[in-house]
Design brief:
With about 260 residues, the protein is an alpha/beta fold. The chain has one domain: NAD(P)-binding Rossmann-like Domain (Rossmann fold, 3-Layer(aba) Sandwich), CATH 3.40.50.720. The protein has eight helices and seven strands. The N and C termini lie far apart (about 40 Å). Bound molecules: NADP nicotinamide-adenine-dinucleotide phosphate (NAP). The site of NADP nicotinamide-adenine-dinucleotide phosphate has 30 residues, from helix 1, helix 4 and helix 6.
Length: about 260
């Protein structure tokens, strides 16, 4: 049963990877879209594909979620031109670097905290009140297995994803008495631009992350997102951990 047809979903970080896959999968279910990321050319190509293939309406905006004023403007434009989304997918995020905490790079730390935690908060704060008022609604945060178990040199990325886990639980608690629910979908290895971004464009090092195993695809994660979004209003997934079968946990990875 399709319970999301005709709804509006705002997807942040929709220009690649998991966010783009969510946009494609939601459009196939007949969900209208608002797509945010910094690379507007990519959003424009995706929007024209999706409206042509699925007949959904797509509103797009170049937004850096770290820029609170830009997020406020984008949210105001969305709410006045299209209306409040019923589904908010807080996906924009990244890992930057992989170093011992005593050798960490301040710029990498700022990028991760400002995007994964403060960016998610910026978007949520400017969009959630209208979602509550319009209700029912659903906030789906893309967390990570990195938010459940730390691994060596993961330190600040781990901390940001532990924060996403805490914020998902906090949203659920604070949204009691409203018709809005909150979930996190927490993947392990997903083959996207994530590792290339983490290693500052070092493609060889990025490819090595997935050596000898079949990682998840963005589509695998999008399936889980749509499953959570499509649950009936009385049911909610709080956290859904989705790993490649080969990734038994952060430490036991079956590479062949
Ligand atoms: N891949 C994995 O193994 C994995 C595992 C667990 C969790 N995750 C999480 O999944 C989410 C998506 O990552 P991905 O794997 O799909 O990586 P990706 O392919 O690099 O996509 C990241 C997306 O986030 C957007 N983004 C980054 N910084 C942004 C900013 N300041 N403002 C607006 N948008 C921004 C990027 O768009 P622009 O560059 O165009 O702005 C891009 O669309 C992240 O939160 C990540 O932590 C990934």
């Amino acid at each position: 049963m399709n319970r999301i047809h005709g709804k509006l979903a705002l997807v942040t970080g929709a220009s690649s990877g998991i966010g783009e896959a969510c946009a494609r999968r939601l459009a196939a279910e007949g969900v209208d879209l608002a797509l945010w990321a910094r690379r507007e050319d990519r959003l424009a190509r995706l929007a024209s594909d999706l409206s042509r293939e699925h007949g959904v309406s797509v509103h797009l905006r170049a937004v850096d979620v770290r820029d609170r004023e830009a997020v406020a403007d984008a949210a105001a434009a969305l709410l006045s031109q299209v209306g409040p989304p019923q589904i908010l997918i807080n996906n924009a995020g990244l890992a930057a670097g992989l170093s011992l905490i005593q050798e960490g790079d301040f710029q990498d730390w700022d990028r991760m905290v400002d995007t994964n935690v403060k960016g998610l908060l910026n978007v949520t704060r400017f969009v959630l009140p209208a979602m509550i008022e319009a209700g029912p609604g659903h906030v789906i945060n893309i967390g990570s297995t990195a938010g459940h178990l730390v691994y060596p040199k993961g330190n600040v990325y781990n901390a940001t994803k532990f924060a996403v886990k805490a914020l998902t639980e906090a949203m659920n608690v604070d949204l009691a008495g409203t018709d809005v629910r909150a979930s996190s979908i927490d993947p392990g290895f997903v083959e996207t631009e994530f590792s290339a971004v983490r290693f500052h464009g070092d493609a060889e090092r990025a490819a090595d992350v997935y050596r000898g195993l079949q990682p998840l695809s963005g589509d695998d994660v999008a399936d889980a997102v749509v499953y959570a979004a499509n649950l009936p209003p009385h049911a909610n997934i709080l956290h859904l951990i989705l790993q490649p079968t080969a990734q038994r946990n952060a430490y036991v990875v079956d590479r062949r």
